[in-house]
Design a protein that fits this description.
Length: 420
């Protein structure tokens, strides 16, 4: 295995395992910033050692064990001269390495939920909560998070640093809150799970188009929240959205890992159990009798696709109406871009292109690769092949995902042949 390939593999492993490691370490040291530093130390050791020794069979366990040992060493070194860690040690009764191993070997999934609620504490601003949680739970870089927010990378970096310091200074507990306190944090937690799922569904960067394990974890945590909050319609709405979207995983890439667009997917292979679960969750949300929120509306859009046995049978007029409703409860340029796609499918590409061209003046969309990608698709359908090629090439230059870049360059090349 080449040096560069080893590093890419390590990066993939880190993205899969980092959240569990950070959550377990946070339970030990009660400081999320320190926990991330300790986890990063383990990653650095792996980067230095694995290219020579080879990647171990149980790489995640290796990283966890290495990070635990760093934490143990830290507690031993500092507990006599730093009262903060003395208090940590006493509160957890962590006096031996065996005790610490036992503490980390408990159910990790509970730690992940605690970590989400910890980083979504109201002592932080809404933007800081989401940025920090995406950093820790999804393993996203500041650049990737900045792209999700459509803001500068330096802004995200500052938010994350300040957020970790604020949590430490306020000694925010590592726990799932109850009753009213839980309700106060719920909207941010739902937003984090939504963004976490989206990152797994369509990876911002890297060599893989999708990250199924990240989606599975977001869905699992969403189901747990639905049990804790059975009377919150948006919790069920988000679970419905994730269930239905997850049903498509087997058809989103081919055997080579190359992306397959929605209209080209084999719907007979969509997971019908996940679709039924999603429709049931959506019905639960509706029965609670409140106006649909952004997650329930997006779930309803996904349901339209799931209930169409072929792409040609998709009810694009209803989807357009749902996007119109979504734009009122969650106005954003990205929602408008999706609405433009739906409008183009329902009423023709000329109408969709009018909306997309208006978005070209939106500053936050200048570096968003899906804007030229959608514009290229609409121009292609109108037979304006030269313009379409330019848009696909621009989209390819903006995306950080290698699979998506290849897809867009292939679409640009197809414009020379006058095909889609």
């Amino acid at each position: 295995m080449s040096f560069s390939h080893t590093h890419r593999t390590i990066d993939t492993i880190w993205r899969m395992e980092s959240a569990k490691i950070i959550a377990g370490l946070t339970r030990m040291v009660r400081d999320v910033g320190l926990a991330e530093d300790l986890a990063q130390d383990a990653l650095v050791i792996a980067l230095n050692r694995w290219p020579e020794t080879g990647i171990p069979d149980h790489a995640g366990a290796w990283l966890m064990t290495t990070a635990k040992r760093r934490a143990i060493d830290l507690i031993r070194r500092t507990k006599l001269r730093d009262q903060k860690y003395v208090e940590v040690a006493h509160s957890m009764d962590l006096y031996t390495e065996v005790d610490i191993d036992d503490a980390l070997d408990e159910e990790i999934s509970d730690d992940l939920l605690r970590l989400i609620f910890m980083t979504c504490h109201p002592v932080l601003s809404q933007d800081a909560r989401v940025a920090l949680t995406l950093r820790l739970l999804c393993g996203l870089t500041t650049d990737e998070i900045a792209r999700s927010f459509l803001v500068a990378e330096s802004t995200i970096a500052q938010r994350i640093v300040r957020a970790k310091k604020t949590l430490s200074a306020n000694k925010v507990p590592f726990e799932v809150p109850v009753q009213e306190e839980l309700k106060d944090r719920l909207s941010t937690v739902l937003e984090v799970l939504y963004l976490m799922f989206n990152e797994g569904y369509s990876a911002t960067s890297g060599v893989d188009w999708i990250r199924p394990l990240l989606c599975q974890e977001a869905l699992r945590l969403g189901r747990v929240l639905a049990e804790i909050n059975p009377y919150e319609p948006e919790v069920h709405g988000l679970v419905a959205l994730m269930e239905i979207q997850s049903s498509r995983f087997r058809t989103r890439v081919n055997s080579k890992g190359e992306p397959i667009l929605l209209m080209d997917q084999n719907r007979a292979k969509w997971d019908q159990l996940l679709i039924r679960r999603g429709l049931t969750a959506l019905e639960r949300s509706r029965k609670l009798g409140r106006p649909p929120g952004p997650y329930s509306l997006q779930a309803a859009i996904s349901a339209c696709h799931a209930q169409a046995s072929t792409a040609a049978e998709t009810d694009w007029i209803r989807i357009s109406a749902l996007y119109e409703a979504l734009s009122r409860v969650m106005p954003s340029p990205i929602v408008e871009l999706n609405r433009a796609v739906a409008i183009s499918m329902a009423f023709g590409p000329t109408f969709g292109l009018q909306i997309v061209d208006e978005l070209n003046t939106e500053p936050s969309m200048r570096e968003y690769h899906l804007l030229p990608s959608v514009r290229g698709d609409l121009l292609l359908k109108l037979g304006r092949y030269g313009e379409a090629r330019t848009e696909f090439e621009r989209a390819a230059s903006l995306t950080e995902n290698e699979r998506e870049r290849i897809l867009l360059l292939n679409r640009a090349e197809a414009c020379n042949l006058g095909t889609s």
